[in-house]
Known about the structure:
alpha/beta; Rossmann fold; six-stranded mixed β-sheet; 17 helices; globular
Amino acid sequence: MEDLKLTGISKSFPGVKALQEVSLTILPGEIHALCGENGAGKSTLMNILGGVVQPDEGSINIGDRQVVIRDAHEAFALGISTVHQHLSLFDNLSVAENIFANCQPASRWGYIQSTRLHRQTQDLLERLSLSHIDPAMRVGNLPAAEKQMVEIAKALAKEPSVLILDEPTASLSNKETRLLFEILQLLKAKGTAIVYISHRLEEIYLLADKISVLKDGRYQGTYEKDKLPADELIRLMVGRDIQKLQTVSFAQSEIAMSVRDLSGSRFSNISFDLFKGEILGLAGLVGAGRTEIARAIFGIDARESGEILVGEEQVDFRHPKDAIAKRVAYVPEERRALGLFQDMTIVNNIVSGDLRKAISSGMYDAVKARRIADQSAKSLRIVTPSVEQKVKNLSGGNQQKVVLAKWLLTDPEILIVDEPTHGIDVGAKFEIYEIIRSLASQGKAILMISSDLVELLSLCDRILVVKNGMLTGEFKFSEATEEKIMTAATH
Length: 491
């Protein structure tokens, strides 16, 4: 295995200089973390290595050879595999067909040998301690965490010399995360070069040998992990110190919402009160049923039994429009698929929350809509050259702010936010936190689902814990600890 060296890599998109003369060396047998805010250029750099896009300038060398990576097939041929943050699986195909896509074992006449394909898949899954996954299972029937592990297995099936992972643990439980880390250590011992992209600093300091930092498309340096304190890493990434959140509570005595004995898909007998001005956390492992509870409250999914009260009024939300009419809003976990219209502008996305606010004399008023979007962009600090830009061109943090802006246009009194900082850099995270706390200070009631315990402990007045669809713990801010929450979530 040989060194991978990038020299003077530059790449521009319309209106954006994504990378500016970035030079980086990845060595065999090391885990090299790549850090930076959303929009820093990390994914663009990895897409260049993966053959997805071509650099405008610069060169790539593997050992002494200069190479040109025109597409994903050439990347594979050179031993480069990428696990993308957004999965590249086909839901209608089996696990085996996904893992060995384009390289299935075939007979001399070109027919796929299904028995051999399934045996190869089973052998690979067993080596990765994933033997519980059925090679014949349709990927669309797998939970999100197992889909992610199939994506990782697909990359490893090529036996790469360079493995690139972009936010690989975002949808994994603690158990699967530990398994992934064990796999990476084995690959490292075999001499595989691993590029690890994550916004979770605790993972970076646990895994990485070296840390390279990008900011605004520019290379900030490469550091030995032990010589780069976390606060200095944050400064390199965001260009400023991150201020700690104030822990003042805005919770009031008046109840905004009551849930009584709520049961539905994958949860049962859920009861709690949510107070005005309160940030109420919902903790638990991936797949515990937290999102299903939120979806049932908001009227996306049917509930089997139980009741919901908004204030003192009993409500029956059979559709999200019923919840919106009672000033309840829901920011979903999968913002790209469920929260945004990717090919539409920031303006159109924001006003889609309440089109009536962009109407004048019975007609859609583009000037009025633009004014609303400009005000939202300013108040939420959405970084964009124009609100006429398509949402798909924004960083993850700014996309999340657009989702929030859309729902805030409905003027909700109750806001449900599901994994609000999923896949978002540390700087944008704190801006989202400030927005949530600002809403609480206005008396808005917040129900916040998060897998990040530090996030919950930093923001929430109370934390409820869900395990296997049931509430197993409740902790006030003053008594909550990571250990108590994890005990309630796992025992």
